[in-house]
């Protein structure tokens, strides 16, 4: 029983350390994206969602900003009316569609 308690305490300590670290990365990503938006290098999430929906109507499930092939790209997941999830890749600076495919 003592070993189980020690294991539980060790696991709790590791979790307490990991959570703030993950939050710190999320905060850094937000700050970096905000600076890119303010400098005019990328479009806002609102603009990207509007542009994505011109290519595929539905509910935006997730949006992610990445740096790929020397440019910023938004990956947008949309749930269409038929229950299919689509992944759209849009140029973050212009909003132009790069690729669209059904997500499996």
Report on this model:
A hairpin with a 5-residue loop joins strand 3 and strand 4 (97-102). This protein is elongated. The termini are far apart. The chain is built from 2 helices and 4 strands, in the order ααββββ. The chain folds into 2 domains: 1-41; 42-104, Nuclear Transport Factor 2, Chain: A (Roll). It has helices at residues 2-38, 45-55, and strands at 59-68, 71-79, 85-91, 97-102. Helix content is 46%, strand content 31%. The protein is α+β, with helices and mostly antiparallel strands.
CATH fold name of the largest domain, please? Nuclear Transport Factor 2, Chain: A
Tell me the number of helical segments per DSSP (H or I, 4 or more residues long): 2
Which sheet architecture does the biggest sheet show?
A: 4 strands, antiparallel
Radius of gyration: 19 Å
Helical content band = 40-55%
Q: CATH class of the largest domain, please?
A: Alpha Beta
Tell me the total number of β-strands: 4
Give the averaged pLDDT, no decimals. 81
The 3D shape can be described as elongated
Q: Which CATH architecture of the largest domain would you pick?
A: Roll
Give a short overview.
With 104 residues, the chain is an alpha+beta fold. Helix content is 46%, strand content 31%.
Key descriptive features of the protein:
104 residues; alpha+beta; Nuclear Transport Factor 2, Chain: A; 4-stranded antiparallel sheet
